Amino acid sequence: MIVVMKPQATEEQIQQVIQRIEDYGLRVHLSKGTEVTILGVIGDDRIINRDQLVHMEGVDKLIPVLKPYKLASREFHPEDTVFEVKGVKIGGEQVVVIAGPCAVESREQILEAAQKVKEAGAHMLRGGAYKPRTSPYSFQGLGEEGLKYLKEASEKTGLPVVTEVMDIQTLPLVSEYADVLQIGARNMQNFPLLHAVGESQKPVLLKRGMSSTLEELLMSAEYILTHGNQQVILCERGIRTFENYTRNTLDINAAPALKMLSHLPVFIDPSHGTGRWELVEPVSRAAVAAGADGLIIEVHPRPDQALSDGAQSLTPERFASLMKTLVPVALAVGRSL
Amino acid sequence: MIVVMKPQATEEQIQQVIQRIEDYGLRVHLSKGTEVTILGVIGDDRIINRDQLVHMEGVDKLIPVLKPYKLASREFHPEDTVFEVKGVKIGGEQVVVIAGPCAVESREQILEAAQKVKEAGAHMLRGGAYKPRTSPYSFQGLGEEGLKYLKEASEKTGLPVVTEVMDIQTLPLVSEYADVLQIGARNMQNFPLLHAVGESQKPVLLKRGMSSTLEELLMSAEYILTHGNQQVILCERGIRTFENYTRNTLDINAAPALKMLSHLPVFIDPSHGTGRWELVEPVSRAAVAAGADGLIIEVHPRPDQALSDGAQSLTPERFASLMKTLVPVALAVGRSL
Amino acid sequence: MIVVMKPQATEEQIQQVIQRIEDYGLRVHLSKGTEVTILGVIGDDRIINRDQLVHMEGVDKLIPVLKPYKLASREFHPEDTVFEVKGVKIGGEQVVVIAGPCAVESREQILEAAQKVKEAGAHMLRGGAYKPRTSPYSFQGLGEEGLKYLKEASEKTGLPVVTEVMDIQTLPLVSEYADVLQIGARNMQNFPLLHAVGESQKPVLLKRGMSSTLEELLMSAEYILTHGNQQVILCERGIRTFENYTRNTLDINAAPALKMLSHLPVFIDPSHGTGRWELVEPVSRAAVAAGADGLIIEVHPRPDQALSDGAQSLTPERFASLMKTLVPVALAVGRSL
Amino acid sequence: MIVVMKPQATEEQIQQVIQRIEDYGLRVHLSKGTEVTILGVIGDDRIINRDQLVHMEGVDKLIPVLKPYKLASREFHPEDTVFEVKGVKIGGEQVVVIAGPCAVESREQILEAAQKVKEAGAHMLRGGAYKPRTSPYSFQGLGEEGLKYLKEASEKTGLPVVTEVMDIQTLPLVSEYADVLQIGARNMQNFPLLHAVGESQKPVLLKRGMSSTLEELLMSAEYILTHGNQQVILCERGIRTFENYTRNTLDINAAPALKMLSHLPVFIDPSHGTGRWELVEPVSRAAVAAGADGLIIEVHPRPDQALSDGAQSLTPERFASLMKTLVPVALAVGRSL
Fold first, then answer.
1. Is there a contact between C249 and A243 if contact means CB atoms under 8 Å apart?
2. Nearest to B152 by CA among B132, B127, B170
3. I need a labelling partner for C23 at 20 to 30 A (CA). Which of A283, B326, D184, D271 fits?
4. Is the CB of A36 less than 8 angstroms away from the CB of D65?
5. Rounded distance, CA A192 to CA A214, Å?
6. What domains sit in chain A, N to C, each tagged with a CATH number?
7. pLDDT average, residue stretch C78-101
């Protein structure tokens, strides 16, 4: 960390700041410039309370140098993290496609969806039993009943299940049925829940919050990693911007940037990232070309009857066609599908 | 709701959409324009699943006309909601000031803070026992111990307590000690928690999410109101934008806009809204002038030793001075302090 | 356009609004709903002054139905616009790559850059002679001298030249040397300049403003198109968001969305869209996979000596390597390079 | 400036960076930390080309310490800048109110508007003769005819005129009629125009771009100040965010922040900052309470017939009522109106 002092800071103020830093067991490198004095902190300064320091007399601002996350960083763990979920390798050479409806709506719907996405080549099945909805008047999911249908669909198709967990109460129940626990964008900074899924030791698909920076996403992954749970997938799903033609703005930069900063696998959700099914196909191809390790795509047997997210869901036919076009793109960047 | 058909929509497609809407028990008004056909839905169309409709053949887009919230709207409830918390009237003529440290750090700290803000004229005491922190390595709050200190500080000063509840697990415990339950910005769309505080029937201070629209804030209030809990305070605390000189961008428009749209009391948090203590004073005055019903301000006996948010905390002296300057501003807009 | 009246609007107010619309020679379709009355305007209502209407008594809000642009819309012009610039076909089957330094810095620099990008397979040469810089203390470009060097580089390599024009004063001069006039992001809504490049009848590369919506970009294209100048390239170059790890957030959705909405060719600028050369390569591949008609990429012989944008410039070697990896991606989506 | 080296940077790379910095005539302070080496640059490093440095081998990132603007900074010029425009003191104890229509539409309209705002207590008259409009089909202003009407209105009322200049071509003409030249938000980074108004030595009202940071606004002011033109007013007019209930999000923090960072007077535009006339009144009061030196407010004799911005224009009656309510707020913060 670097402490920049105000131009008018007194010698006494500078000494007090140095003393405070040394009280943490760290050393300070003093640079007196022509306009300002700066103090370079030597040692692992993540232990310093920055909010305090900024309030000391004479301090202008603090500039962090070290990244605030450690376990999630590539510096700490240079090799890619690769793990298996029921035989599906995550983070490896193959691009992994998770597909299925936004919400489980009925036994028939999820069985049909699972069958169709399996046929089209998907590797895992998605479907929500507990749904976070902006409005209390919207369909909130089938709950445990939905989980049971998911399980049945998984057993019939052999596809592992990815499903969202919304709170600690339902975590034990959801864990019984899910192969991968999804943390939704709205819960990316639900810290008690992050701790709980960390402790669960189950694989976690962690979605980026709609206004969270990449650094914050990695800090949330760090919460899970501190429990020794290494099976974390980072998922870019679009951020909120001023543009309103699309539901969100898919941050394509995030895929290569996260791969640089972290060893964790990175997935992309073009369904939420665009909010329009017509854009899902080209943006899926872009995601693979940008180096994403996987995709999560909403597919519904009859989008015009979907209880949620119909506007961004593909029909099984369109999904099958998309899968075909993804193959050469994956090959073009040295991956398989 | 208005359904705009694509220019090339066929007569059959139009009839199918009309049929679908009528299946909900609603009526449709058909307008054939020179370029497009639009269908006006007559009746309370909040029951229609928009995501489905948008997927029907020939549909271009849906345009909502009715507001998606009802209980929170001023149309539904024209008079201001006013309620009392241990003798402090919220939403009335008096501007209510909640003050105290970001986090309870020790018995001494919170007792001193409470005493000082009471002397300066604050009406309620804030202080976090459970703290949502971006980093797992930051101070996470004292938990129940902190709640006990808060209670003691409250009893000694007579100030009611506002404190954050982060999850359903700790809600019963927090409810024993808190007079007002705070829902933090990161939990504004933690829907299970909203349901739970709704059921608790305790007053709730609901903070706007850092990238939530006013409509989404009102929808989250609606979650609480559906449980018959009318004691909800809306709180603007700054939104996330590209500007990085300040921690957040305080949306001053939100105060009068929320007062127009809703009957609920509206508070403003200039500490998080600016992130810099030097800006808290002028922005607090602005908040009162804009018509806010209250303020929530971070005050710490020694900000340079605060375990969190020191950069935006006022000293007790500065807070006392601020309170003095707020009085004439409140008077200028027909309020008292 | 649809006019939504307030719930309490009187019959007289409704009639006044209808009268006002009919004064424009348009017809009105009246729908009385259970809560509100809505008026559907029939005819080309782009001539109505919306700001006036919204101020009439009883009016709640106006909802546009028709797109505000016409000449730029695909509805108006269903086939892709394709045009040639000195033998390079823009908007056709081939993905066109424009490459070169941010700024022309010397005769040697631009000649070397042009030679190297030509060898690597670029189709056009970029380079700024007039540079918009945030700071008055930064290098502002070589002006006419730079244009002359560009011309020489173009003649030696056969690459057509794309260069920025910043104001009307220098437009005649820049037009003498440029094959394509670039309108920078900061000038996307410099309307006098848009009119002038429209009149010039030269091809225009129109960059999206850093906080402009797709609709606003298309409206700015419309300014140029109204002068009968059809040779307009739309260019996504990243938008400003809260994310600060990257210089901008490249809006990958924009590529397929603009292709849907408009017939104009769509290019992507991964250099400004990321601000980091390490990300330029994967994001370029993503752009091609998403359906972009072309790329504009910053390449500098020695980025560590560049007078501007060094951080996002590729070396000629890295550019050559990128071009090789783009070929299979282009093929994978049915294009050539 | 501080240069942070990568953890794996070699000694040779570090020495090359030091050499490069010393070539600028600056000195370097080296700090070897446990994880990284940082180099503190001593001297006025605004002359260093940062884009180059970031591209050198071994460099991780550059962190600026000095502010990039100088003439606009309060450090350079501690006292408030105060200047007079035809007897109206800008930046002094009195809060200055500029009022009038968005656009000059006719002689009658501007004469009536000027008379009414004068009676209500406004100090200056606004009105646009050249209008930047998103759509080429919208009213673009009366041009020179509008300027003449403005002049007449000014002479009849004694109010100085503030009007927008959109390009260098019309600058001489606009300068003949204007007392203050307005640079609109879309032109905040039209650098040739900034140079030109700097040279003109006329007072300038510089509006913040809709996605510009405070630092960028100050850099644009710096462009004007480098020409020795000290008469610059900074104007916050709302920024673009995800919130769409209001036209823009008025950044109230900007008022006190700009006053801290700079000596220049700071005005606020609540009309564009909200986009809704119902919000203009409370937000104007907030602006004065936050310490703004002035306001610029749209007033139209008949907003429902305005050719632009009717939705955010006050009637003369509402403006007169607003002015009355501003007086006690100004007094409450030690100002007059």
1. no
2. B127
3. D271
4. yes
5. 20
6. 2-63 (3.30.70.1140), 83-333 (3.20.20.70)
7. 97
What is the b/e burial string over D4-36, where b = at least 16 CB atoms within 10 angstroms of the residue's CB? bbeeebeeebbebbbebbeeeebebbbbebeeb
A204: enclosing H helix or E strand: strand A204-207
Cross-strand pairs, C31: C38
pLDDT in tens, B94-137: 999 999 999 999 999 999 999 999 999 999 999 999 988 888 88
Six-digit token pair at B20? Answer: 């679908």
Say if the Cβ atoms of B34 and C43 lie within 8 Å: yes
What DSSP assignment string belongs to C263-332? SS-EEE-HHHHHS-HHHHHHHHHHHHHTT-SEEEEEB-S-GGG-SS-GGGPBPHHHHHHHHHHHHHHHHH
Residue B304 has pLDDT above 90, yes or no: no
Is the CB of D331 inside 8 Å of chain B's CB atoms?
yes
pLDDT digits (tens, 9 = 90+) for D122-179: 999 999 999 888 888 888 899 999 999 999 999 999 999 999 999 999 999 999 999 9
B23, burial (CB in 10 Å: exposed 0-12, middle 13-18, buried 19+)? exposed
User: Residue B245 contacts by C-beta under 8 Å, 6 or more apart in sequence?
Assistant: D213, D214, D215, D257
- Could you give the dihedral angle defined by the CA atoms of residues B47, B52, B56 and B59, in that order, rounded to the nearest 10 degrees? 70
ipTM, two decimals, is 0.91
DSSP states of A62-103? EE--S-S-STTBTTTS-SPP-EEETTEEESSSBPEEEEE-SB
**Helix-strand-coil percent breakdown of chain A, rounded to 5?**
40, 20, 40
**Main-chain phi, psi angles of D252, to 5 degrees:** -65, -30
What DSSP string describes D150-177? HHHHHHHH---EEEE--STTTHHHHHHH
User: What number of other Cβ atoms are within 10 A of residue A148's Cβ?
Assistant: 17
Contact D17, D5 (CB under 8 A): yes
pLDDT in tens, D311-332: 789 999 999 999 999 999 999 9
Owner of token pair 């007194």 = A10
- Split at pLDDT 50, 70, 90, the class of D72 is very high
Q: CA-to-CA distance for B150 and B143, rounded, in angstroms? A: 11
Average pLDDT of C287-293?
A: 98
Give the dihedral of Cα atoms C290, C292, C294, C298; nearest 10 deg: -60
Distance of CA C184 to the CA centre of its chain: 8
Q: Chain B, 221-280: which have a CB under 8 Å from a chain D CB?
A: 239, 241-246, 249-253, 255-257, 260-261, 273-274, 276, 278-279
Q: What is the mean pLDDT of residues D110-115?
A: 97
DSSP B138: S
Amino acid found at C269: D
3-class DSSP state of A57: coil
The half-sphere exposure of C193 on its side-chain side, counting CA atoms within 13 A, is 31
DSSP letter, residue D4: E
pLDDT band with cut points at 50, 70 and 90 for residue C67: confident
| H and E: helices and strands count for chain D | 11, 14
* DSSP β-bridge partners for residue A262: A73
> Which chains does chain C touch, 3 or more C-beta pairs < 8 A?
A, B, D
Cβ <8 Å between A250 and C245: no
d(CA A246, CA A249): 7
Nearest to B107 by CA among B175, B141, B153, B140: B153
DSSP state of A313: P
Under DSSP, the state recorded for C135 is: S
Question: What CA dihedral angle connects C73, C74, C79 and C81, to 10 degrees?
Answer: 30
pLDDT at D227: 95
